[in-house]
## 1
Amino acid sequence: MALLELENIHTYYGNIHALKGISLTVNEAEIVTLIGGNGAGKSTTLKTISGIIRQRHGTIHLAGEDLSASKAHEIVAKGIVQVPEGRQVFGRLTVVENLEMGAFIQKDKKKIAADMERVFTLFPRLKERRSQLGGTLSGGEQQMLAMGRGLMAEPKILLLDEPSMGLAPVLVDSIFDTIQELHRLGTTILLVEQNARAALTVANRGYVLQTGEIIISGSAEDLRTNETVQKAYLGIE
Ligand code: ATP
């Protein structure tokens, strides 16, 4: 059984039919990537999964449990945790306070401390800056903090929305290294990226979205060698 399963999801913004029957699966410990151009519906897919927008038709299951009608806070509590595009860290809270916000469901202080240590092992930079205000961190550090905050919620699946957006190339590499490390540790990830090349180097499988529909799906290798993907998303003629 897939850990996450979307079946025939239709999502609208008013009259705009943004998702036109999306079906996809993510298995445990997999990295699955959604690639596509601007406005393809990648962010809308993640927002629908995390309950920020409600689909008009279709179902969402997590480990067999139907979450199609669940509210956003219930979906987080079930273990689907989104790291939003644009990072959205709390600028006036310190690094530690931001991380604590991620653990808001967790009541056990020892567990919170252990989770924070784990995040600091993954992102030593955040440990160095633990008392610094979120708003004064660099773009790359804010991305690390947003991912760290997501991990503090002990996700069954982490939804990453454009983690490399706006980052210098060296930081992009470091974020993708971390995604690979998370994969090695067994974290399940649904990764939305415009940087298809980088996404397909870390992912096991992928789906290509175009104007609200999945037009191609397969293993990362299949997608890397697919002519349409090469032309449209990898810049290979
Ligand atoms: P990007 O990389 O540009 O964020 P995306 O693939 O994530 O692209 P979405 O943001 O999911 O695309 O947008 C899908 C479609 O829904 C687009 O046509 C977009 O214009 C529309 N859309 C997105 N958000 C809204 C909104 N709040 N109100 C109306 N239409 C929206």
## 2
Amino acid sequence: MEERLQKVLASAGVASRREAEKIILAGRVKVNGKLVTELGIKVDPNHCRITVDGNPVKQEKKAYYIFNKPRGIVTTMSDDKGRKCIADFVKDLPERVFAVGRLDYNTEGLLLLTNDGELAQKLMHPSHEVNKTYLVKVPGLCKDEVLDKLRMGVKLEDGMTAPAIVNLRGYDTEGKFTMFDITIHEGRNRQVRRMCDFIGFPVRELKRIKLGPIKLQNLGRGKFRPLYEEELEALLKAAKL
Ligand code: URA
């Protein structure tokens, strides 16, 4: 069956569909030996030879993993500053997976790793509004009324944030820290950190514990496991696939 070239590249796990478009526009893709730099063309992946940077593109079995990213790791497959990145953890996996979305260098927690470019694209698109829940630790005693500001939405330099679901979890015994969880569906850059800066309680620790229907639970730091079938079904449903 014929499909758009960028979709074929995404389903083969080369990159998300948007990244695949960039790869085509950059003149890195050939179909049956002919350079393609337009986005419109349709190809039948079973009846033509596609290469990226000269390497043949094979349709890979779809793979889905949940990963518990530790702090101090970049959410990329390589880092020009030589910092540890996701690739260091997944190099022994049989499939070529990439992370869906990103977590800051100092954020830990749930990342989804897959070679399913279509799912990645859907989950990252703001119109799908997949919820993300973070556990937040801030210094000092942050009263529940202050958290109301996050619940209502705060004004950041790139506009108001949508209302968030926030649950105060408690204070440590000496009252030096406040813990709460926050659920948002937007995916702006450093959003939770900037929201917390706005209310005057800068984030000390940040951990993503839920993405759509998928929960991190007790998966160890730096560990990953394949998604269970029920989790995958729920995730595909959440992404409206
Ligand atoms: N919000 C942030 O501020 N950082 C992350 O890594 C994720 C969400």
